[in-house]
């Protein structure tokens, strides 16, 4: 019969209002704690009044008319309970949560269920004689499913730095889609659904069913109830275009080639052209006329008549007289002093010994700093202050004990899947190996150390985020997916055909959903770690691509351990356990496992071991130098007088004086409480030996070459010689001392400390040499004149004729080397070669790498080297970075909240939003994840729709969500104002509850585990102090990665501070990560290097100018040559792969000091020479001073340096052997080859006043004839 007219309309309406269930019946056989719904095919029923508020809260779209629905109050309560976890994560985005609730509200209560729900299986309820719905089909339109997914796919879970769908989809968010998300939520295996729901996705009616396709909201749209659109962090479409990092500056090129190379090559060619043209011009002019010695470039071969005193006196200028008077004053003072020291040797020596003893006693107070933070970070540096602020407010960053485990096994294996293609697993995930790794992990947990008679275990020192409710240690290990249990690891559910559930399936589930409390498998094993927190796969697996965790080739096990700032007793326990851990791992052996490991104390321990292991190498190096100095000082005239003319005892005494000066410097600063560093101990003896031994050779050889004048006694001769050479020694020593004291202005602790100690050591060395050593030299000369043996001075040889002959090295320099270097055809080649070297070095200076490869700080045989190698190869995440908001920001106002938070209504340039935006361009920003935001999670936790925030009505004490007690009431009412964010006192009232709440299955937003240390409460919990928001850096492998990370993080923090209006206030935002204190120096090291070296050069220039009697041009030439040496050091660094860091900067500063030794003596000898031409004066200076400089520095250091190449320490091999060798070779070649040639071309004119003084001083003596030759 056909129904027509009004009856048909009524019939269709009745069909539309048809239910499939109503009320709850018996308990589910799948989840006994939950119930089936009762089968009911009648029309919807009016909802009782006790459920109408709940319907308004959960399903406001169904509130109309008499509220006739297909559910009762109990079903609404069940729905409210079931959606608590999604509510806590998805309600951050109102559109997402509205669409999500539409899906479940239509399922549970829709008055027209029969249109899209079809009950397909039933069971009887014998108790109430009712029928249970045990299976049904839910017809959902694809359009709705896609819209719901698209609105939710970007929603973040702040506490875990992952997408919310990773926690709600049963797999990683990247693998989630509209269909498998809904299928997962309705799957009876997920531990939440008491009956089977089969979703059917269709857009068109099928089998008489009309798919549910209710209206949805896009995440960019506001809701009808006034809720705003989702934030950019939770809705990528709301962000606009994806941020694009600024383009990398293109390399500076000219014609496609490196610009600096082109510029320096062109400059070099231009210089050669000008230089050769000038030489040719000078040669042509000389053919026509003879130029005077005062010509600008070319010297004359015809000397002036310097004996014409009348003519000379008329030509002497005021400046020349001033320079000569100053030189004469120095000569007079040092002559008197030298004569006194020789006449009163015992007094001088005793006073020197008392001074040395008094100063050296300070070594009893010596402290050696090995703490890397103190070594590399200045106390007042930005990073150090930020570290101190973080440590004081949040506690020091935890210590890390870490294993990286691989296997020599190469055979991959398959998981035969029952639902799809087989899945390959890497060898390290073989269950046999996992069992062995678990045994190792358990052994480490059970390690016992002893500290002050007490046993210390891992439980005593480990990080336990949920203590005291859960005292299990945090162990970031893949085995925590299996609760660190062999029993759970061995769980297997299978039949004779298939394995349905075992460790493979549990592993695959947990890496997709690490916060799951149930893997939905046969055994319902949790994925959460035993410590109460998630174990993210990128922290415990390595060597895989993308998210293919089953292809991981390495396991990473991390034991976070508590760190203590000022509690030495607790820190001592930690150090004792770490020492036991290292010992255990060194002795552990398993042929199936390859393990690299590190402890927090490993680097410091290995640096200490390195220093101790290199003591032998250093001693051998110094012994070689000592032996050479002792043997080389003597001027042996014949084999018969070998033991008379040798200077072994004097050489040993000279070396002891050098070492005494070092001891005095260390002692004086130890008195002052200045701690030493390893760089000071290793470098300063080398430097002071270079300076001190050079002066010893100059002094001794000057005496040996000198002829005693008639009626002159020994003390007068030595005094006169000292008057000649001491000004040169004073020039070099004071130049170095002032240069190093200026170097101490550096902000880098290593450079500052080195400069302080070096400056004082060189000054004391000079004072001891011109006093104590002069006295010892006088005694030794007396011994030699009396024919007494060296060392065995009580034995006297018979009197014999003493022959004075020039030393072999002196003759070589005088007869061969100096004339050859200054030949007319050699000099242009020397200039061309050295200017070419300079041009090359300038071209590559900007290409020297900045930083220090941490592997270089370890000995060759260190176990930490393997760890560093595996760290860069296998790890998939970088160190955590904290964006700290200093105390003073007001979180109680909406304005202050919006400046920080990342959810609905928050500013587009808020802190969380800016860090999130930076994470979208991680290759540039080096920030890999969205920040965890305690503020956003607190807002979700405190919502009245959630069961998280409750308190006991009678006492006001916090009531955890897992507590079933009718006296527990919601923190906030279900009113429009109650749904808003809390402000003022209400904000602070519930915040302590949030920070003490442990997450559980009823409330995953509890803040105790994630945020208990992130928020500092003050003023008796009435205000918020300092807080932080944590993210992670990307993998940082090279020094440049670390430097870029800190640089960009600081730029980001500054931008955040500006957007919050805090840039000029004390409570600004700063980034903090554990490595910042070590790498901050590299942000400004180029500037610091230029500043330090410039100050050294300026100091050398000023001192040289003054001590040469204001001879400005000589000071310019000295400074120019030293600058060339330093620039050439950069060229060597680039060629030899030496990076610029604190160690190399110390060596560069030291190279300035040693270069003064190579240059200043030559220049002063040139300036006081009275030869007629520049070439002759340069030749005389090189002949007389060159041999002393060569033997005193070059040969002394060369043997010692070569020994450093045998060191086990890579730092010694790279930064000491290579750089010291370069310093000595460059200094020697520039000082002994280039500088004399430069002086022969452009040296200062002869001082006519000096000529007159010299002639008058030696008038009537044999020397007058020599001077006239």
Automatic annotation (TrEMBL):
Pfam families in alphabetical order: NPC1_MLD (PF22314), NPC1_N (PF16414), Sterol-sensing (PF12349)
Family annotation (InterPro entries): HMGCR/SNAP/NPC1-like_SSD (IPR053958), NPC1-like (IPR004765), NPC1_MLD (IPR053956), NPC1_N (IPR032190), SSD (IPR000731)
Membrane topology annotation: Multi-pass membrane protein
Any GO MF annotation of the entry: lipid transporter activity
Coiled coil residues, start to end: 430-457
Family named by the database record: Belongs to the patched family.
A GO BP annotation: cholesterol metabolic process
Primary localisation category: membrane
Transmembrane region(s): 262-285, 346-366, 615-636, 648-672, 678-700, 721-742, 754-779, 1090-1110, 1117-1136, 1142-1160, 1181-1207, 1219-1242
Keyword entries, A-Z: Cholesterol metabolism, Coiled coil, Disulfide bond, Glycoprotein, Lipid metabolism, Lipid transport, Membrane, Signal, Steroid metabolism, Sterol metabolism, Transmembrane, Transmembrane helix, Transport
Keyword check for tRNA-binding: no
Ranges where the SSD domain occurs: 614-779
Keyword flag Transmembrane helix: yes
Record-level GO cellular component terms: endomembrane system; plasma membrane
Subcellular location: Endomembrane system
Annotated protein name in UniProt: SSD domain-containing protein
Catalyzed reactions per annotation: cholesterol(in) = cholesterol(out)
């Amino acid at each position: 019969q056909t129904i027509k007219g009004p009856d048909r309309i009524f019939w269709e309406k009745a069909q539309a209002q048809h239910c499939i269930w109503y009320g709850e019946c018996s308990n589910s056989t799948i989840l006994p704690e939950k119930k089936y719904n009762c089968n009911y095919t009648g029309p919807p029923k009016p909802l009782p009044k006790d459920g109408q508020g709940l319907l308004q809260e959960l399903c406001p779209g169904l509130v109309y008319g008499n509220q006739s629905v297909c559910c009762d109050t109990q079903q609404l309560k069940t729905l409210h309970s079931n959606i608590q976890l999604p509510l806590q994560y998805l309600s951050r985005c109102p559109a997402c949560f509205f669409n999500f609730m539409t899906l479940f509200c239509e399922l549970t209560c829709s008055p027209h269920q029969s249109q899209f729900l079809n009950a397909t299986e039933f069971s009887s309820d014998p108790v109430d004689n009712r029928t249970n719905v045990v299976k049904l089909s839910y017809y959902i339109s694809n359009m709705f499913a896609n819209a719901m997914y698209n609105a939710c796919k970007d929603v973040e879970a702040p506490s875990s730095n992952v997408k919310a769908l990773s926690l709600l989809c049963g797999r990683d968010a990247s693998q989630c889609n509209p269909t498998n998300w809904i299928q997962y939520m309705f799957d009876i295996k997920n531990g939440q659904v008491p009956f089977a729901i089969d979703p059917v996705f269709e857009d068109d009616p099928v089998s008489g069913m009309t798919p549910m396709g209710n209206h949805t909201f896009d995440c960019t749209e506001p809701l009808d109830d006034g809720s705003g659109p989702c934030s950019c962090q939770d809705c990528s479409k709301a962000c606009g275009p994806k941020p694009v990092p600024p383009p990398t500056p293109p390399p500076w090129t000219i014609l496609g080639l490196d610009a600096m190379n082109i510029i320096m090559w062109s400059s070099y060619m231009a210089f050669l052209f000008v230089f050769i043209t000038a030489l040719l011009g000078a040669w042509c002019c000389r053919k026509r006329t003879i130029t005077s010695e005062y010509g600008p470039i070319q010297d004359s071969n015809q000397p002036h008549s310097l004996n014409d005193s009348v003519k000379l006196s008329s030509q002497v200028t005021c400046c020349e007289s001033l320079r000569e008077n100053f030189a004469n004053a120095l000569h007079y003072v040092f002559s008197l002093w030298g004569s006194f020291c020789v006449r009163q040797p015992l007094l001088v020596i005793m006073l020197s010994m008392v001074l040395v003893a008094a100063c050296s006693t300070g070594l009893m107070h010596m402290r050696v700093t090995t703490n890397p933070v103190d070594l590399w970070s200045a106390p007042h540096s930005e990073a150090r202050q930020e570290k101190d602020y973080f440590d004081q407010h949040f506690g020091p960053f935890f210590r890390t004990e870490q294993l990286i485990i691989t296997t020599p096994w190469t055979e991959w294996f398959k998981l035969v899947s029952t639902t799809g293609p087989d899945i390959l697993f890497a060898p390290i995930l073989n269950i046999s190996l996992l069992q062995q790794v678990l045994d190792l992990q358990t052994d480490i947990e059970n390690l016992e150390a002893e500290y002050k008679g007490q046993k210390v275990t891992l439980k005593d020192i480990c990080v336990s985020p949920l203590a005291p409710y859960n005292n299990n240690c945090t162990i970031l290990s893949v085995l925590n997916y299996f609760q660190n249990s062999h029993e759970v690891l061995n769980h297997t559910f299978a039949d004779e055909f298939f394995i349905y559930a075992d460790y493979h399936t549990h592993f695959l589930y947990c890496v997709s959903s690490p916060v799951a409390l149930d893997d939905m498998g046969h055994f319902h094993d949790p994925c959460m770690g035993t410590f109460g927190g998630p174990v993210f796969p990128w922290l415990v697996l390595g060597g895989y691509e993308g998210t293919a965790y089953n292809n991981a080739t390495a396991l990473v096990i991390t034991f976070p351990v508590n760190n203590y700032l000022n509690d030495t007793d607790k820190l001592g326990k930690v150090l004792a356990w770490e020492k036991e851990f290292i010992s255990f791992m060194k002795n552990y052996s398993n042929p199936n496992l390859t393990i690299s490991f590190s402890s927090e104390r490993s680097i410091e321990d290995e640096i200490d071991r390195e220093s101790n292991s290199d003591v032998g190498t250093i001693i051998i190096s110094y012994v070689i130098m000592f032996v050479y100095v002792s043997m080389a000082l003597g001027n042996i005239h014949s084999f018969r007088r070998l033991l008379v003319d040798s200077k072994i005892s004097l050489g040993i005494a000279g070396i002891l004086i050098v070492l005494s000066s070092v001891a005095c410097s260390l002692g004086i600063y130890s008195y002052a409480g200045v701690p030493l560093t390893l760089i000071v101990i290793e470098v300063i003896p080398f430097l002071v030996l270079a300076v001190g031994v050079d002066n010893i050779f100059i002094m001794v050889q000057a005496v040996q070459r000198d002829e005693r004048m008639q009626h002159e006694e020994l003390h007068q001769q030595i005094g006169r010689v000292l008057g000649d050479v001491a000004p040169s020694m004073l020039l070099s020593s004071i130049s170095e001392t002032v240069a190093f004291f200026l170097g101490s202005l550096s902000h880098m602790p290593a450079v500052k400390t080195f400069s302080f100690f070096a400056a004082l050591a060189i000054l004391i060395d000079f004072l001891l040499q011109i006093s104590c050593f002069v006295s010892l030299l006088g005694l030794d000369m007396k011994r030699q004149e009396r024919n007494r043996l060296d060392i065995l001075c009580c034995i006297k040889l018979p009197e014999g004729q003493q022959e004075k002959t020039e030393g072999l090295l002196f003759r070589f320099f005088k007869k061969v080397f100096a004339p050859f270097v200054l030949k007319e055809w050699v000099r242009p080649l020397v200039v061309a070669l050295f200017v070419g070297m300079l041009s090359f070095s300038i071209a590559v200076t900007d290409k020297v790498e900045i930083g220090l490869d941490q592997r270089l700080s370890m000995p060759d045989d260190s176990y930490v080297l393997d760890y560093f190698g595996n760290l860069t190869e296998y790890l998939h995440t970088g160190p955590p970075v904290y964006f700290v908001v200093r105390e003073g920001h007001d979180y109680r106002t909406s304005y202050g909240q919006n400046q920080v938070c990342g959810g609905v209504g928050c500013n587009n340039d808020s802190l969380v939003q800016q860090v999130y935006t930076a994470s979208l361009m991680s290759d540039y920003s080096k920030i890999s994840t969205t920040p965890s935001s305690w503020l956003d999670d607190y807002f979700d936790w405190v919502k009245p729709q959630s069961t998280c925030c409750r308190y006991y009505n009678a006492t006001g004490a916090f009531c955890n969500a897992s507590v079933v007690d009718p006296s527990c009431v919601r923190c906030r009412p279900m009113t429009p104002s109650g749904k808003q964010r809390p402000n003022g006192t209400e904000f602070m009232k519930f915040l302590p509850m949030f920070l003490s709440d442990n997450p559980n299955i009823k409330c995953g937003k509890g803040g105790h585990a994630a945020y208990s240390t992130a928020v500092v409460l003050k003023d008796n919990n009435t205000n918020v102090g300092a807080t932080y928001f944590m993210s992670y850096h990307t993998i940082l492998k090279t020094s440049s990665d670390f430097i870029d990370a800190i640089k960009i993080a600081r730029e980001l923090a500054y931008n955040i501070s500006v957007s919050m209006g805090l840039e000029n206030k004390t409570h600004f935002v700063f980034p903090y990560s554990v490595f910042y204190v070590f790498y901050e120096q590299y942000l400004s090291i180029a500037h610091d290097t230029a500043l330090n070296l410039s100050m050294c050069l300026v100091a050398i220039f000023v001192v040289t100018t003054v001590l040469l009697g204001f001879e400005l041009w000589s000071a310019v030439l000295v400074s120019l040559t030293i600058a060339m040496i330093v620039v050439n050091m950069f060229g060597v660094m680039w060629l030899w792969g030496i990076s610029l860091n604190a160690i190399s900067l110390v060596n560069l500063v030291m190279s300035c000091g040693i270069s003064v030794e190579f240059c200043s003596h030559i220049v002063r000898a040139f300036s006081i020479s009275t030869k007629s031409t520049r070439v002759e004066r340069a030749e005389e200076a090189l002949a007389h001073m060159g041999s002393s400089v060569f033997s005193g520095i070059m040969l002394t250091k060369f043997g010692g340096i070569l020994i450093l190449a045998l060191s086990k320490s890579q730092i010694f091999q790279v930064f000491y052997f290579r750089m010291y060798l370069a310093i000595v070779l460059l200094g020697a070649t520039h000082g002994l080859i280039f500088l004399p040639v430069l002086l022969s071309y452009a040296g200062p004119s002869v001082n006519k006043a000096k000529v007159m003084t010299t002639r008058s001083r030696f008038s009537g003596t044999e020397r007058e004839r020599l001077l006239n030759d």
